[in-house]
Each structure stands twice: as structure tokens, then as C-alpha cells.
């Protein structure tokens, strides 16, 4: 059983969320907490990044935070609700940094099947699995 669990959610794999939550809850210690993380990589990977205003980013953060809060309230029992964090950066680096910073014992994350695009470069999930200091469960 794990006391500190991190669920990095990206809204791309929503069909897998029920499995992610069910797995996290099964592995959660009775006094454990489940934390949610969203990583916005918009300013890192896109040529239009300089065009994103601080106001636009702030508004996006508010919308994402509300979605994560709604998700937390609907899916995670009150006794296991942890923190909601929204960060900006490279997805896998940010997940790993947050896991280390907050003494996360288990990361449960959704991932799609690898395609040609991720065959050589690797997906965020595969990078997290390779470099995490804690247990990682990938849901497909």
C-alpha cells in the first residue's frame, strides 16, 4: 500500500481515467493521499509560445484547475484527496521533479499504445518509467 500517489493527467487519455483511479484506489494506503498533476507544455514545444500572454495562460490554468478539482471531487474519496498541482514545462521532467519533491511513492498514469511517432523518441510514460525513483504503473 502506498501513502503518496501521483496521478499525472493530460486530458488526452480520458477514456483511461476510470482505470487509473481504480488502480490508484486499490493501491492506496488507508491514510494515503492521491495527488493530481497537470503539466502544460505549451510554452515549451510550440513555435507560437511567445504569443501566449500571461493572461491567456492564467485563464487556462483556472479552467484546468477547475476541471481537476471537479475530477477530484467526483472520483477520489474525501479521505484520500491530496493536492492539485498545475505546472509548466517538459511533461516527463515535470512529473519526475514533482514526484521527487513531494516524496511520491507511486505514479499511476495513462498512456496510449506506442506508434511510429514514439517508437524512436519514446513517450512521456516510457521516460517516466525509465527515470522515476518510485514505482510507476502505466494504464493502457
From TrEMBL:
Outline the extent of the UspA domain. Answer: 1-140
Q: Which Gene3D superfamilies match?
A: HUPs (3.40.50.620)
Organism domain of life: Bacteria
Q: What InterPro entries does the annotation carry?
A: Rossmann-like_a/b/a_fold, Universal_stress_UspA, UspA
Family listed: Belongs to the universal stress protein A family.
Q: What is this protein called?
A: Universal stress protein UspF
User: In which organism is this protein found?
Assistant: Oceanisphaera sediminis
Taxonomic lineage: Bacteria, Pseudomonadati, Pseudomonadota, Gammaproteobacteria, Aeromonadales
Amino acid at each position: 500500500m502506498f501513502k503518496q500517489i501521483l496521478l499525472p493527467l493530460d486530458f488526452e487519455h480520458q477514456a483511461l481515467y476510470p482505470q487509473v483511479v481504480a488502480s490508484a484506489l486499490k493501491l492506496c494506503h488507508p491514510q494515503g493521499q492521491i495527488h493530481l498533476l497537470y503539466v502544460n507544455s505549451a510554452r515549451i514545444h510550440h513555435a507560437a509560445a511567445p504569443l501566449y500572454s500571461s493572461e491567456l495562460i492564467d485563464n487556462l490554468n483556472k479552467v484546468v484547475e477547475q476541471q481537476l478539482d471537479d475530477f477530484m471531487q467526483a472520483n477520489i474519496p474525501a479521505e484520500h484527496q491530496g493536492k492539485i498541482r498545475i505546472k509548466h514545462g517538459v511533461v516527463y521532467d515535470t512529473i519526475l521533479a514533482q514526484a521527487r519533491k513531494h516524496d511520491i511513492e507511486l505514479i499511476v498514469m495513462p498512456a496510449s499504445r506506442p506508434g511510429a511517432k514514439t517508437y524512436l523518441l519514446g513517450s512521456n510514460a516510457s521516460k517516466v518509467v525509465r527515470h522515476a525513483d518510485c514505482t510507476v504503473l502505466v494504464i493502457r
